[in-house]
Each structure stands twice: as C-alpha cells, then as structure tokens.
Design brief:
homodimer, 138 residues, alpha+beta, 2,3-Dihydroxybiphenyl 1,2-Dioxygenase, domain 1, 8-stranded mixed β-sheet, 3 helices, 8 strands, globular
C-alpha cells in the first residue's frame, strides 16, 4: 500500500519566479534545490507538514517537464506516494492491471527510488511511487 | 502558514469506477462518502498517511466539477492545505497579492471551513485553504 502523499510535483516555466511565488503562498522558504541530470530538471523543494511541494523546470528540450509544458499550462505534473518496498508495490500494481512507465525502479530527485504509473490507468493522474534510499546506500 | 497538505481533490466522471480504481491503486478502502449539497458534489475520501485523496463527481450541471470536466480531462482539481486560522491566512495571502475566490470562508466537505485561491495567482494550481471545525461547533 501507499503510505504517505510524499510530494506534489509542479511543472513551471520560470523556477526563480515560481520559487518566490510558492515561498509567499506557503509561508515557508524552500529547504533544498537539486539538479537531476538524468531527468534534465532543476528542482526546488518546500516542506509542508508531512509532504513536500517540488517545483520542476526542464533544463533541456528533451526533459519530460519541457515537453509537458509545450502541451499544457503550468500546474501539477505528478503526485508521489511513499512506499516501503517499491519492487513489491510495482508487482502489486502490475497484478492489479496498472501500466507502469518504467520496468525497474530508477533514481529520482531527493534520494529516492521511483517508478511512474501511467496516467491513463489512474484517472488522469501521473502517479509516482517513491522509496527513500537509506543514507548509507546513497 | 500552511501546515499540511490536507487533501488532493480529483474530478472524476464516474464516482463508482474511480472509487474502485483508487481502492486498488492506494491499497486501502475509502473511509467516508459525503454529499455536499452546497457544491453539488458527491465525494469519496481515502486516507493516505497524513493526507487524504478526495474523489469528486458533480451532481448537477452547475457544479464546479461538472463544468471543470466539460473543459478538461479527469484529474487533479484542487490541492488543499490545512491552516490553523483561515481568516488570518486569507488576510495574509490577500496582502501578498493572491486573488481569493471567496471573500469569506465557506463550509466545505469533511467538516471544514474553506477558501480557494485563484489558480492564475498560484502557477496554475487551484489551492484550497481549509480549517477543521471543532466537533462541538459542527
């Protein structure tokens, strides 16, 4: 099962402007900025209670975020749920008929193993499963 | 400040089908169903860690959810953040230049006072502030 709404990922055009906007909206400063080379994105994270808001801006034309923003306005890109055992959850969801976008867990931002579920199989929502990688293994 | 990502609201066409789908996706059964006459919606709630997933289906052509789904595909309709004092947060956000969609807090689903922030002032996200109403005042 999915144990927490770990973060919401928002696709934005201008990361500096969105960071300033979300700092004022949430009433809290970001706690982390991270470039994820494998996804060609720059990210900024805010903590809100037990969940995070992740702002994402593409850093190359091939970035999934850049391509998303070519077709859609700024807004929510994905919803990430925490899991304790990503491989077990991937197997459970495959058995339930969900379409996964990667066959194996991959390394995501914020020191996580991640897997995406196709939005067509989740009522229009791009769902991410994420499992924290222990510090010792990072 | 916003203290928790209280819930994600998802607009769906077929509440029964979406409830079945999200039960399988999240690996947990819904804990509440509620009709909100003032908003003309039927809702189904799932608890995931400290946050909720709220499925919403319109029950009249004038429902905001019905109108949303006339223009957009199924998916995330709003993101709700918990606040301790909704009137204080509304004043803070007004002073920060955000556009609020209601001047006074209104009664929402799940025993809350709610206020919406215009998505044009929040990078495309329809943000809800919500404050729990004490049981004794419900």
């Amino acid at each position: 099962m999915l144990t927490n709404l770990e973060h919401l990922g928002l696709a934005v055009h201008d990361l500096a402007a969105a960071t300033e906007l979300y700092t004022r909206l949430l009433g809290v400063a970001p706690y982390k900025r991270e470039h994820v080379a494998s996804e060609a994105v720059d990210t900024v994270f805010f903590q809100v209670g037990g969940s995070k808001i992740e702002l994402l801006a593409g850093t190359s034309p091939s970035s999934a975020i850049t391509r998303f923003l070519e077709k859609k306005p700024e807004g929510i890109h994905h919803v990430a749920f925490e899991v304790d055992d990503i491989r077990a959850e991937m197997a459970r969801l495959r058995a339930e008929g969900f379409t996964l976008l990667n066959e194996e867990p991959k390394r995501g931002a914020d020191n996580k193993l991640v897997c995406f579920v196709h939005p067509k199989s989740a009522a229009g929502v791009l769902v991410e499963l994420c499992q924290s990688i222990p510090e010792s293994a990072a």
